[in-house]
Design goal:
The protein is an alpha+beta fold and about 210 residues long. It is about 55% helix and about 10% strand. The chain contains nine helices and six strands; from the N terminus they run βαββααβαααααββα. Strands 2-1-5-6 form a four-stranded mixed beta sheet. The chain is globular and about 45 Å long. The relative contact order is 0.19.
Length: about 210
Amino acid sequence: MIIDIFHDIVCPWCRIGKKNLFTALAEWKREHDEEVTIRYRSYLLEPNMPKVGRPFQEHMAEKMGGRERMMQVFAQVTRAGADVGLHFDFTKVERMPNTWLAHTLLKCTPPALVEGMLDALHVAEFEEGKDVGSLEVLLELAARVGLDLDEVRTALTEDAKREEIEADLALARQIGIQGVPFVIIGEKLALSGAHSPANFLKAFAEAKKVD
């Protein structure tokens, strides 16, 4: 079974949806002898974000129609995260980054380390308040998961994965994706949003019937 996940690093619901998906996969694998391949597809929630990013709270307040609404959304995300064992601390986030480099880093990461790399990016963004659009921060995170820093620095500075990222973005436009997380199961069944583990299990079963 192939699972394609369209996501952006700064999307908190992508982090929650990923946790729910993997919870469902753990249960699914206990009952089904089936190989699962996950393909992370890049998506940019803020395609026009400057390379240096913007002040986080200022940007989010503008986007959500005011500080009060922004704080309500932060509280909702924090509660939803806590329900699945994930911590969010939006008070630490200072920059809304351009995530192109972060997607590049994930594309450069060997398959066996991708989950650890994505988790490190999420922790840096949502728990530590680090700027994941910064080259130096990304190199620090790459070191955490054991990547070769010279290779990573070269890949990031030379934009080595541009074609792969642009292909993901083009596919998202072709499909008509308007937001993330967006998950495609078995190249047949699509789910938009941070679904529960139960919904993912239903989708796995439905995709298997289609086969």
